[in-house]
Specification:
Strand order of the largest sheet: 3-8-7-4
Structural class: alpha/beta
Shape: globular
Bound molecules: zinc ion
Helix content: 25-40%
Order of helices and strands: HEEHEHHEHHEHEEHE
Largest sheet: 4 strands, parallel
Number of strands: 8
Number of domains: 2
Radius of gyration: 18 Å
Number of helices: 8
CATH architecture of the largest domain: 3-Layer(aba) Sandwich
Strand content: 15-25%
Distance between the termini: 46 Å
Length: 215
């Protein structure tokens, strides 16, 4: 009954890219509500310290469902799905915010050309979806070579100088605790680069929250 009504409205069933079951999309047509609601923080294997990052937390593995959703967001340019992912991780991120009590919450921005080609910044949209207050503190100033092909030391060098703090935040980060959200923890070189910039400009402590880890 409801089905035929929705069919007449042109709302058709779509196959969920995660579980393969059909669902009726509301705000996005990639992943069903059951899969999104089923996202839970997963225990991840031992994670080493990332100096000078004061501490960090990871939601799940990039090989798991959360990673699959991140890949769909990237390759299908699925902005509404980024917001839904934000909603799904909001509880876990909120607990980490309580734990480290940051003065500012922000995110690792994508490079401008990638923003133009994709139309949105996924880390920003994920944060938007969490409903938490956050600020746009950082700007990416230089696009580095594809990091995957570089050795670890070269990667760290490649991302040095890739970020700047927006002038309006130079005073606001001074002696403050900053929590930065990023989608994937790979080698940690991006986190190092961001933390070095923030600390050198006066931030007291820099924490990270990664939506996933490549393990
Ligand atoms: Zn599903």
């Amino acid at each position: 009954m409801l089905g035929s009504f929705l069919d007449r409205l042109g709302i058709v069933e779509i196959t969920c890219l995660l579980c393969g079951l059909p669902f009726r999309p509301e705000d996005q047509g990639f992943v069903c509500d059951d899969c999104l609601r089923g996202l839970k923080p997963e225990p991840v294997p031992y994670l080493s310290r990332i100096e000078p990052v004061a501490g960090y937390r990871v939601f799940g593995s990039y090989r798991g469902p959360v990673g699959e959703i991140l890949r769909i967001i990237k390759f299908k340019h699925a902005l509404p799905l980024a917001r839904r992912l934000g909603r799904a991780i909001a509880g876990d991120l909120g607990r980490y915010v309580e734990e480290v009590s940051p003065d500012l919450v922000t995110f690792v921005p994508v490079h401008l050309w990638r923003f133009w080609s994709r139309g949105f910044d996924q880390n920003e949209e994920i944060l938007e979806g969490t409903g938490l207050d956050f600020d746009k503190v950082l700007v990416r100033v230089k696009h580095s070579r594809p990091l995957a092909r570089l050795r670890r030391e070269d990667r760290i060098r490649a991302v040095q100088g890739s970020f700047k703090v927006r002038p309006s935040f130079l005073d606001r980060i001074n002696s403050k605790r900053v929590l930065v959200v990023d989608d994937v923890l790979t080698t940690g070189s991006t986190a190092v680069s961001v933390a070095v910039v923030l600390i050198s400009l006066g931030a007291e402590k820099v924490f990270f929250y990664f939506v996933s880890v490549e393990d």
